[in-house]
Amino acid sequence: MAIRKIMHIDEEKCIGCGLCTKGCAESAIKIINGKAKLISENLCDGLGNCIGHCPVGAIQIIEREADEFDEEAAAKHLESLDKNQTSQAHGHGGGCPGSRAMAISRNEKPKASTAVSIGDIEIKIKPQLSQWPVQLMLVPERATYFDGKELLVTADCVPFAYPNYHLDLLKDKSVVIGCPKLDDVNYYVEKLTNIILNNDITGVTVAHMEVPCCNGIVMAVNEAVRRSRKNIEINRVKILIDGERER
After folding, report:
1. Are residues 6 and 94 in the same domain?
2. Of 22, 60, 173, 187, which sits 20 to 30 A from 52 (CA to CA)?
3. Other Cβ atoms closer than 10 A to 236
4. Mean pLDDT score of the chain
């Protein structure tokens, strides 16, 4: 053993999203019981590439006594992973099945729909979600489902307050959701900037509630578009607490 730099995970902060796994070239991080774990000291090179992928600041590089980094052991570890495990460790699944990035195809006759009955008339509403995940902290910064679409940035109360969310706002768009009051708006700005830079986004709609704290997500979108230096139009939609859309 020697005193060297090695990654450290604060398990109390860790939310188990698995995003850190894509920054680890040696696949030394694994989600175990809902928390990120360093599976072996000799697999960690101490460079800290995983740090920037953590949305909650749960990872840092510290100096302590630890096994030396073993490049040969790391290579053998990667070889031992099957193709699917290797894919997940580098972000195609984020180490957590619930945050695996995927596009959702929509047929003319979807397998599921929401039925609304008005007297003897039943209205079926087709779901319009075309991707997973949707939470801004979990979506990848580069995904094919962003390309050629308008990006809908939604304050997470909007779909609950606005009954026509799927057909009026979500249809034909990619989407990310978040709460500017509960989360770090600076992180939102950085993440949205990277999404706009790394994908062929045709426009941005930001949907927010009328409450003052919700203006934070509007600010984040405006700043992200400014930083991207792309000529992208921003459409702002305000939803009132009573469920109406402000005209």
Report:
1. yes
2. 173
3. 13
4. 85
CA distance 126 to 241: 25
Distance CA 228, CA 53 (A): 20
Range of the domain at 22: 2-99
Q: Is the distance from CB of 204 to CB of 174 less than 8 angstroms?
A: no
Span 49-58, average pLDDT: 79
Q: Please tell me whether residue 226 adopts helix, strand or coil conformation.
A: helix
Residue 77 and residue 178 in one domain: no
Can you spell out the DSSP letters for 13-78? T-----GGGGG-TT--EEEETTEEEE--GGG--S--TTGGG-TT--EEEEEEEEPPP-HHHHHHHH
Residue 178 reports pLDDT greater than 90? yes
54-77 per-position pLDDT tens digit: 878 899 999 999 999 998 898 888
> What are 190-221's pLDDT values in tens digits?
999 999 999 999 999 999 999 999 999 999 99
Q: How far is CA 37 from the centre of its chain?
A: 20
Read off the pLDDT of residues 71-127 as tens digits, 9 standing for 90 and up. Answer: 889 888 888 764 444 344 344 444 555 666 777 776 655 555 556 566 666 667 788
Q: How many whole angstroms from its chain centre is CA 127?
A: 20
* Nearest C-alpha neighbor of 135 from the set 114, 159, 163, 113: 159
Residue 154: give its domain's CATH number: 3.40.50
CA distance 22 to 111: 33
Q: What is the pLDDT of residue 94?
A: 45
How far is residue 22 CA from its own chain's centroid?
13
